[in-house]
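Below is how a single chain appears once it has passed through the pipeline. First comes the sequence as given, then the structure the pipeline wrote out for it. We keep one example in the README because the format questions we get most often are answered faster by looking than by reading.
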Amino acid sequence: MKPRLLLALLALAAVPLPAASPAPAKAPAAQEDPDAGLTTYYVGLITRGPNFDAYNSEDRAKIQRLHLDNIERLAGLGKLLVAGPFTGGGEWLGIFIFKCSSLEEARQLAATDPAVQTGRFRIEIHPWRTTKGSIRDPEFAAAK
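Resulting structure:
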């Protein structure tokens, strides 16, 4: 290599390069609402009440009929989406899933049940979050 070319290259190497300008900051991604695809239902867990064994078979049958009638009434109002008994003889006797505006409303609806009113059943209500449409509910499209 010729000495002049070598000197020119060395001179260029010694010249500080301008600092690279930082890449333009990306606009922060819009934060997705983690609750956007969820809805709240109220799950009622039915257990034996304090008077579960206090009735004769005729009275138990009458209370059961009134209990089933109340289930139909609440379903007809669109407030009770799912109801049914558990099998296997465990502590939980049945389940209700309410669609309503608040925990207090769910408790009020549960309190209309004749089996709860007589103390044959006890019901404990819990808010439950799940994906919209995961329960057959006419307000939301079916889950994909």
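The longest strand covers residues 38-48.

See the next section for the split statistics.
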